[in-house]
Task: structure prediction
Amino acid sequence: MKLNKKDIQHIANLARLELTEKELAKYGSQISNILKYIDQLQEVDTANVEPTAQVTGLTNVFQEDKVCVWDKDEVKAALKQAPEFEGGQVKVKRVLD
Result:
C-alpha cells in the first residue's frame, strides 16, 4: 500500500510530529513498506487457526484479599513513617489534573 504525502502528513499530525519535507519522504517510504508487508500477511489462510490471546501458557494467579485490622499503636507507627498525614490518613500529592 503506497501512502501519499497527504496521508503521511496526517499521520504525523496525529502523532504530534513536525516533519520536514525530507522526513516526510523518508518516513512515508518506510511506512509504505511496512503496510506492503502487512498486505502480504492478509493473504495467509487462517481459516483453521484458533485465535490466541497469548502463547506463553502463563495464567493469571489471583490471591484472595485479606483484611487485617490494626490496633491503634500499629496505625500510629505507620503514620509516623509518612512524610505527611491528615485525619488519620496518609496525605499524598495529587496525581491527576
Remarks:
- The two ends are 41 Å apart (CA to CA).
